[in-house]
Design goal:
- Two copies of one chain form a homodimer.
- Chain A starts with 5 loop residues before the first helix and ends in a 16-residue tail after the last helix.
- The first copy, chain A, has 20 helices and 16 strands.
- In chain A, 40% of the residues lie in helices and 14% in strands.
- Chain A is globular.
- Among the domains of chain A are: 6-216 and 429-493, Rossmann fold, CATH 3.40.50; 313-384, Orthogonal Bundle (Arc Repressor Mutant, subunit A).
């Protein structure tokens, strides 16, 4: 039999294109949108109040303007998300179809590459080698922040030297906030550079009234769900272990919730619910122990538990500790290397409030060390490195031993832990993300063609067939609110946490007792690219539920699908 | 858009069937096979020397015998492997097509269920619910050993009470050795029960001149390779981390080698090579450090390393320690709970030889504890619980610090570890495993129809199209040799380790330097069920190389594939 690698073949997939984006669309001003946050206007005097734009098929085929070639720059910012390369392919194809003499430059290794003018022209050969592939390796990414006036001036100088008409920044909430600041700067200094953002993050927290989902979320959730399903099947087959599975997703629990909807585990912890009810780690452990005991009484000494990696930051007491630690670590950064490892915990505790210090020292040592580790460039604790799953298992063992001593529990508790993060971020995008990203890229180009700066490319109506998807331009400032950052009030794009009154969480809440009590596991299997559309092209259950669609199979005749 | 779950749809897949197995084949005695191990005969006086059988399309359509319904029992033994349910489906379908009044019983939770007569009739409804699914949850599995005469007598009594004509034991090398013992017992006591084995294990070590591969190996390797590929893409995109990935596969490194062929990591450690060259852990760490320094000098402070979970048992010094520990733990099993955890390491060291004791106490504490943990029912250390990857990273950090101090290394070493095992064992089988298992099941039934006891079902010619696969019956004793087990010489089915002179390893050896020096990563992506056959239906690169086929894409016109 002949042998072909999927990663080679996949380059030839043609993303599905919204009808509106097949050729140059017209831009219409939408009149009907949610109230704006006036307080943001002070931070964006030049760009605040831009209208929301809808891209539409042009009513007449005659163009009023002569087409001239465009030069566009693009960069990737922050953590990888499946589909990044397709955004770039979408930008490229739309540019070339607008005018074949247009050109595209990619800045290498993120915003840092923009400031250092490390750049590569993205020709058809380059683009074709990366179509529908995962990762950000075409041009790389980093976490350099564009925040300061000097940075904007440098960026603009680089843009001019390359003759850029537009710059597309592909990133999460912070990177898009920075895109807004750069757009504001350009407007303020009267520079015509168009700055457009694209909503990227596997965490799914760049989402609001105008952005249905960020790209990469769909693929990542599907990869993790494949693995969770496989583990659950193993768990149910051998009936020996409790599996504790920590999932990436820095703050919000969207990924954990989506994975729970896809796999129906025995327990899924949702950080936002923990915070809403002011729960402690002990509360979480008590509830888990209740489920373990209940299942044990039914003859099931096995199960699955999903844990969002950001959990510790949502437990109020832990959150307070982390905030204090962030400060102590920042203030003492220059001295820390002088402290012996054996003394570091006591050294830090000595600088905390009494309550936090005693809590800090009561934690398992390994956990306390992890909380004291190096911060990321934003000064945040690296939650993926904190072994929350191990902490919970350790605490659970103690709790179950206690119950056993009291005769309340007779089962056997054997736990295995897993952490899925790097396994998904660079997966080949699902058909959904491949097409969604490609459409975002085309939208970004068309916003640039129409000289619309300070916008985020948006594609909506995503639970319908891609041909019906609706592209739009959302003013970056429209998605902002004020937040305190390092003691300063700033206008930033709002992170969207799981809404515990929203349809996805309500569905989860309605069903979780039945999932806890028995075996309701789903086994989603690997992402499929070639099969029936109802299997291969769908997006997340979160989006389905938000659009009043059930996350259940419809009746169908299997034979008709092949 | 409508929404259909893959795990539901997949039940409707029809495995591809070898032509020979489409209806009742004839059995022919093959004359040409490798020399037999005469020393085994003493252990199997009644069944040794059975002929090797080939299943062939019957030359005439007239059957000499009247068909009467058969009653067959089946059980799953040992760890899960993708495709187990399809073996059972194959048995069932062949039984029913042979005679519609035939019936199939499944013993629950493995050989233990046979002895306890925990059994369930497997009707069409049950079978249909599990077709092409992963896991063993249809009837479960365990690790009970069938070794003693009393057990055989009990098994036979249960078989009689159900009116069984045949029993199919689906398991690895040990389980199939036990199948051979049961077949021998039946023959010796003059019982007509037919006992047939099926080659199951993700480890790929049940493989020899007659068995090309065990089922589940293909799927598992593909799941792990998907994840390794994703991690490598992440690694290459962010250029920050060295990823150390431990892979399941109890003893042999077949899974690690296959994953290396599929993903082309910077380093893959193959236990069999370590043992062949008598290498120490320090040697391994030195070689890894050499690669890390070399890549760092080329500007690449990132990379990927694959580690087989059984590695520690192949490092001669460690192997000696483990053998001693196994003995000490077994001999002192009744006293161990009296020893405090803080004293257990010294307690055990006191009972080891001087050399092992000092090595044991020189290990990182966590590792020493892991080596002292509970043994599996075979008295073996649970290698999957030993954090070899952590040990190697710890040792590497020290080595790199030394080199840094000497000015030989200027890079930044940041390591992340992963372990993949439970993520793959219960995956939905690949098309290859789905069809291979189904063919094995049909073969098992036809061996039973022909009253051939003491055989393993075999299907060969696997790199060709399934229609051309060649079913056979291999005498279980033909695959045996003598081994010392717990101080006694026993005849057992030989485990197949990676042959470092075989084609797969030679291909790896030829290319690994270029993989270490640069970026040669492959990103295989998720298992596909619906696409072009050259993508979806192929088996392992190991098998391709063993059959003189290259593991490279052939030239093709992508458009012709869709």
């Amino acid at each position: 039999m002949s042998y072909i690698r999927l990663d080679n073949l996949r380059k030839h997939y043609s993303p599905q294109i919204p009808k509106v984006l097949e050729s140059l669309p017209a831009v219409e001003i939408a009149t009907n949108y949610a109230p704006i946050e006036e307080s943001v206007s002070a931070f964006f005097p030049a760009t605040f109040g831009l209208p929301l734009l809808e891209l539409k098929e042009p009513t007449s085929s005659e163009e009023t303007q002569e087409r001239i070639p465009l030069t566009v720059g693009v960069l990737l910012s922050g953590g990888q998300a499946p589909g990044g390369h397709n955004v770039i392919a979408g930008i490229f194809d739309a540019l070339k179809s607008y005018h074949p003499a247009s050109s595209l430059y990619g800045f290498l290794m993120g915003p840092g590459g923009l400031l250092k003018k490390q750049v590569r022209e993205l020709t058809a050969d380059v683009i074709n080698a990366y179509r529908n592939s995962g990762g950000f390796d075409m041009i790389g990414s980093d976490r350099t922040k564009l925040e300061k006036k000097e940075d904007f001036a440098t960026a603009l100088k680089v843009a001019h030297s390359l003759g850029l008409d537009a710059l597309v920044i592909i990133g999460g909430d912070d990177s898009n906030t920075n895109a807004a600041l750069l757009a504001e700067y350009c407007q303020a200094v009267g520079d015509p550079l168009v700055v457009v953002g694209c909503p990227k993050t596997i965490d799914g927290d760049l989402k609001n009234a105008w952005i249905e989902t960020s790209f990469g979320f769909d693929t990542c959730a599907k990869v993790y769900a494949e693995l969770i399903g496989n583990i659950q099947r193993d768990c149910y087959s051998s009936k020996k272990y409790w599996h504790f599975i920590k999932l990436m997703g820095r703050s919000a629990s969207h990924l954990t919730l989506e994975c729970a909807l896809l796999t129906q585990p025995n327990v899924a912890i949702i950080s936002e619910e923990i915070a809403a009810h002011n729960r402690t780690l002990n509360d979480i452990v008590t509830q888990l122990a209740d489920v373990i005991v209940m299942r044990s009484e039914r003859g099931m000494d096995f199960g699955s538990v999903l844990i969002p990696e950001g959990l510790v930051e949502f437990v109020p007491r832990m959150k307070a500790l982390i905030v204090e630690l962030n400060k102590v670590l920042a203030e003492n950064a220059h001295k820390l290397h002088l402290v012996k490892r054996s003394q570091i915990l006591n050294y830090l505790a000595g600088k905390l409030t009494e309550e936090s210090a005693s809590f800090f020292l009561s934690l398992p040592k390994e956990m306390a060390y992890q909380l004291s580790m190096e911060r990321d460039p934003h000064g945040n604790v690296q939650v993926s490195r904190i072994e929350t799953e191990e902490l919970i298992v350790t605490m659970l063992k103690k709790e179950l031993d206690k119950r056993k001593a009291k005769g309340e529990y007779k089962g056997k508790f054997s736990a295995l832990t897993h952490f899925f993060g790097y396994e998904g971020r660079c997966s080949m995008p699902s058909n959904f993300d491949a097409s969604y990203c490609y459409a975002l890229g085309r939208t970004a180009t068309y916003l640039a063609v129409h000289h619309r700066s300070g916008y985020m490319a948006s594609v909506r109506n995503l639970v319908n067939h891609p041909s019906e998807w609706q592209p739009a331009g959302i003013p970056l400032t429209l998605m902002m609110h004020l937040e305190e950052r390092k003691g300063m009030l700033k206008a930033v794009i709002k992170k969207s946490l799981v809404d515990i009154e929203g349809a996805p969480f309500r569905y989860f809440r309605k069903h979780r007792h039945e999932w806890a009590e028995g075996i309701a596991y789903h086994y989603p299997g690997p992402i499929q690219y070639f099969g029936p559309s109802a299997v291969c092209d769908n997006t997340t259950l979160t989006l389905r539920l938000e659009n009043h669609l059930e996350p259940e199979d419809e009746t169908y005749d299997a034979s008709s699908l092949f």
